[in-house]
């Protein structure tokens, strides 16, 4: 592998006009698009009741995997490590992003969470203490998600 994962991101601080160095970023996925979509209900505003079918009729959702990284001097995240929370049993998860992406069949949803509060100097210094971006991943795809950031706004787009 070229040292760059199939999902990468780049953060630019638009108030300073430079890359946003040192932002903690978490990547979470995969989630099934059908389970997390506003468009999955049959009518606007309708909320479906939980299914009354026996649990054996549906496969349980796959557990979400989490990865973490930090933006480098160029504001980029090129690779990810498995995330291990402070409250976990102390066991380090053993999987790579490439392994997880390789197991996915069909489209899935992933979430990037950017810790903007720490970057801007605390929750009082920004309107968005976390910038969250949810995006769709197709089998075999390569994804780059840039984030343009200021204390009172953020913008994202599909990069190349």
From TrEMBL:
Superkingdom to which the source organism belongs: Eukaryota
Q: Where is this region: Disordered?
A: 1-89
Q: Where is this chain compositionally biased, Low complexity type?
A: 32-55
Occurrences of domain Transthyretin/hydroxyisourate hydrolase (ranges):
7-159
Entry keywords, A to Z: Hydrolase
GO term, biological process aspect, one: purine nucleobase metabolic process
Q: Where is the signal peptide?
A: none
Q: Which GO terms describe its molecular function?
A: hydrolase activity
* SUPFAM superfamilies named in the record: Transthyretin (synonym: prealbumin)
Q: Kindly give the InterPro entries that the UniProt entry links to this protein.
A: Thyroxine_BS (IPR023418), Transthyretin/HIU_hydrolase_d (IPR023416), Transthyretin/HIU_hydrolase_sf (IPR036817), Transthyretin_CS (IPR023419)
User: What PANTHER family does this protein map onto?
Assistant: 5-HYDROXYISOURATE HYDROLASE (PTHR10395:SF7), URICASE AND TRANSTHYRETIN-RELATED (PTHR10395)
What is the protein name stated in its UniProt record? Putative 5-hydroxyisourate hydrolase
Task: Give the organism, scientific name.
Answer: Escovopsis weberi
């Amino acid at each position: 592998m070229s040292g760059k994962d199939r999902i990468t991101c780049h953060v630019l601080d638009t108030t300073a006009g430079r890359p946003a160095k040192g932002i903690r970023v978490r990547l979470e996925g995969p989630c099934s698009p059908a389970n997390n979509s506003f468009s999955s209900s049959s009518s606007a505003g309708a909320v479906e009741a939980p299914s009354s079918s026996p649990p054996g009729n549906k496969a349980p959702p796959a557990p979400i995997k989490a990865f973490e990284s930090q933006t480098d001097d160029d504001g980029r995240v090129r690779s990810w490590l498995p995330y291990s929370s402070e409250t976990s049993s102390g066991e380090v998860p053993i999987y790579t992003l490439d392994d997880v992406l390789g197991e996915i069949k069909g489209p899935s949803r992933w979430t990037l969470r950017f810790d903007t509060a720490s970057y801007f100097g605390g929750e009082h210094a920004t309107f968005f203490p976390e910038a969250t971006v949810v995006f769709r991943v197709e089998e075999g795809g390569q994804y780059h998600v840039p984030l343009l950031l200021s204390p009172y706004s953020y913008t994202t787009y599909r990069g190349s």
